[in-house]
Structures are given as structure tokens and as C-alpha cells.
Amino acid sequence: MLQTKFHIVLNANSGGATRLGITAERLHGLFAERGIAVSVDADASRPFAERLQTARNSPAEALLSAGGDGTVTALAEVAIATGRSLAVLPLGTANLLARDLTIPTTLEAWFEALGEMAPRRIDVGEVNGQIFLHKVVIGAVPGIAAAREKLRGHDGFAARIAFLGHFVRRLSRLRRFAAEITPRSGEPRIERVQSIAVANNDYGEGLGQVFHRPRLDEGMLSLYLLRQLRLRDALRLATEMVLGSWRNDEVLEMESVRAVVVRTRRSLVRAMLDGEVVTLQGPLRFRTLPLALSVLAPPVAEAEPGLVEPEPEAG
Q: Where is the DAGKc domain (predicted)?
């Protein structure tokens, strides 16, 4: 049984926490049943930066994110800075990192698997000194995501129709923009696009494997250029992603890089970073930080490709 002491940062407003009734008291009880000591920060009234500082100062051996992907990314930065492992109790909507690492996404299964979890080193991406675990997107997507954020907490048919209406209107008004793209090992070039995404490692294809990364340790970033995104393009891409055949779509261009600089005419660039809408100072300087983060995750099945520890270099 795992005996690591955890400091837990709980996002009590995440979808999973509210749906399952996850509180600090319940987390204390669940871990105590297994003989694991924890400290839990569930104080949503404090600024999140202060809560991260508390995590940084905690004497706990490992940090645990109990929330969505945004909480995971924020706490990962603390884990890297303090040389500790990060555990992920997925309580968000997408839970992308947990799914890539085959971390169970139900509470019962997660606690059943906890005793078998072990540290695994994975890559992280960095843009202008800020880390990301999944991807950074500029262009069309952040505006759509911002509208979705306004509807957060408003479930039901009316909210879905409102978002769909905004999505269609947004697509009809999209304009391409010029971006100068300079890979570390290449010459600058000008591209006209509607969106640019830079992902931490590459997204694979496969039936139902939407935004799934088979490897998190290749030490590469994937640059995706979306040339245009009309309504018919969006519908076709969505279908191809579900069917696992999207990589050769005519509106996409992909490139693997270790570092890249993206310049646009704007000095301030609105972006979606791991699901959160942020404003970044241009130009955007991306690089990969290979194996920078230690994450507690279940062992990799021998038959499963990817997500394996790299072999030590000879000599």
C-alpha cells in the first residue's frame, strides 16, 4: 500500500466534486481508511495563487490535484519547482491527462488503483515561461471556449442551444490571420490560418480516441495549423476525430518541433491553455521540457504502446 503523504488541492467547484459531494472531510476519511496521511486545501475563498504557495510550502512528499485539467496544470508547475511527484484525482469534465495515463476516472476505481501507482516521468510544454500539459491554442478556439465558460453551471437544453448558436455565429465570422512561424531548426515563414495549436507530444488516431496522446515522453511538440474552419469543415473534422481518421484532413498541417516561435500582429494574444482562456504577451515562444514532471500513475501494460520509460543512454 502506498504510504506517501499528500497535500491535496481540491477544486470544490469542479464538476466531479459537486456531483460526487467531494469535500475536505470526505477526502480525509477516504485516505484515512487506507492509512494515508493527507492535508487538504479546499478553501475556495482564498486566491488560487495563495493556495499554490501553500502547496509549495507544504512538507508533504507529494502533491495531489483534485479537480479538472486547469487545477492539474497549475499544481504541476509547483511539483516541478519543488521536485515532487504529482498525483491526479480527476474531478473535471475532460480529465485529459488522467485518460492519457490510464488513471481511473471514477472515485472507487481510483482508490483501488492507488496502491499500484508509481512515479512516471513525462514531458511538459512551456510558452513564455508558463507550462502546459496538453496544448495551447490561438485563433478561433479561445473565443468559442470563452463563450462556453460563460455558460458553465447552466446545464440543460436551453444552455446547449445558446452555445450551439454562438458556435455557428462565430464560425461564420471567422477571418484568417497572418502568423510568422519560426521552428528552432527552420527558417521563418508566414502562414495564413484560422487557428494554431501547439501540443505537448502528438495526438494519435483511433476509433473514439479523441485528443488522445499515445506517448507523453517523446520530447517533442506538435504544431497544428488549421487553415480554415467553416461549418462544414468543423462537422467533417469532428466526425473524422471520432472515427480516428483526421490527420490527413485538407484543412490541417502538422509538424513536430522541439521549439517554435509564433508571432502575430497583436502584442497581446488570447489563447486557450489546457482548457483555460488566458492572455499571453507576444511573441509566443514554445519549447518542450522533456521528462520534467513526475506523475503517479498505474503501471503500463506490456501490450500497450507508448507511455514507457525511456531506456538509459549507453555510456
A: 1-131
Q: Is 256 in contact with 184 (CB distance < 8 Å)?
A: no
The DSSP symbol for 116 reads: T
Fold match, 6-116 / 131-291: no
Report the CATH fold assignment for 6-116.
Rossmann fold (3.40.50)
Q: What is the block-wise mean pLDDT of the chain (315 residues), using blocks of 10 residues?
A: 79 90 94 93 95 96 95 97 97 92 95 95 98 93 49 48 52 78 93 94 83 93 89 80 82 94 95 91 97 95 48 39
CATH says 131-291 is which class?
A: mainly beta
pTM for the model: 0.83
Q: What is the Cα–Cα distance from 126 to 135, expressed in whole angstroms?
A: 10
Rg of the Cα atoms in the chain: 20
Write out the DSSP string of 7-72: EEEE-TTSHHHHHHT--HHHHHHHHHTTT--EEEE--TTS-HHHHHHHHHH---SEEEEEE-HHHH
- E runs forming strands in the chain: 6-10, 38-41, 62-67, 85-90, 118-127, 130-132, 135-139, 177-183, 189-193, 195-200, 221-226, 252-257, 259-263, 268-273, 276-281, 284-297
Give the domain ranges of the chain.
6-116, 131-291
Query: By the 8 A CB rule, do 212 and 229 touch?
Result: no
H or E, element range at 149 = helix 140-150
